[in-house]
Amino acid sequence: MKYFGTDGIRGKSEKVLALSYALGVVVGRNNHFVVVGRDTRPSSIDIEKELTKGLLSAGAKVGLAGVLPTPALAHTAKVKGAKGIMITASHNPPEYNGLKVMGAEKLDEAEEVALDRALDEEISKPSYTSGSGQVEILSGAGREYKRHIIATFQHLDLTALNKKVYIDTAHGCFSYLAKDVLETLGADVVALNNDIDGTKVNVGCGAVHIEDFARKIPRDSIGFAFDGDGDRVLSVLDGEVYDGDQMLYNIALHYKASGKDIGGVVGTIMTGSGIEREFQLKNIPFHRADVGDKHVFDLMKRQNCLLGGEKSGHLILLDRASTGDGLVSLLAFLEVLMAKTVKKAKEYKTENFGLEVENPRLFYMSQNFQEKLAKTTLKIGEKGRLIVRPSGTENLVRISVEEYLEGVDYAKIIKENLF
To answer: Which of 53, 183, 187, 314 could disulfide-link to 310, CB 3.0 to 4.6 Å?
Structure first.
């Protein structure tokens, strides 16, 4: 695809701005009502204006929800029976932005391919404005989402939690809102980076910097760090980081112990082999998808799985939400903690590398790189698990290796053979 990557359109803000009007035309042409939300970045306002112009020119009714977490936009779109477009670059720094098209759930691969082609055709046409659409201000979308989450977890009495709950909202979309929900449910909350400031979103804070967050909070507490748009969260419990794999593992075990038929669990190629082994020991079917929540969600539907997610903290719990929702994941993990069943699955040490290239997908598919990759895989053999993939959001080929043995210089093997 030319414009859409792992999670919608992503890039420097000026690039996204240049595509916004045409995307509005394409989406507005086929949808009567489109709800638009945005994250806290300064560039999101201009992108919202251009996107809205395009939607209106195509005759669509546009619901402007303002600053809103991505899962809240998905909920609003579902309630309204509308298509949704979220303006966000998720976990990326402030100079980036993006566009995610969704309904109650993210678009699948086939839908994105069709939209990508339509956008490519539209982008070369001269802009026009018919003025036939309408605008509605949806000022209560955040409050409605908050009520929905509180109702979903009304059984959870967090006054009985014997730990303070620290949250880091990364100056993003869950600023204020997440704290309000947790306090309404009875938690004793300390919020960090909890003001809406798009110039600081994800900068030295939030899920991207989970190790820094872990050092800032007391060891006898529990903490949760969101990304900028709130569709992912990572946890710190008693000083230890629980990534998306570990959170998903614990939630799955809790669901099964509670008698829920989860069908199985979907992870990704990045999910640790230790987690996969633990699921096998617990007789829970486990499936691997490509990286990206759309791939996880698609495989969940095909395998009839209730739970799925990524190491990055993007979890999908289909009994509570139809898309990744950091606040839902947080509260589901607190359920496990309240039941006193949290445990950490043993995992292998993993080293990560990034190979900077101009076009990651073309570079990855090239014969030269594939030959190098085949030789490197043979050299590592049964000493580890090599995972190599082109990034869908940055100009990188991402390389990870799970290290099964001590005394092997995995970094040397990688650098000598793939760089």
So the answer is: 314
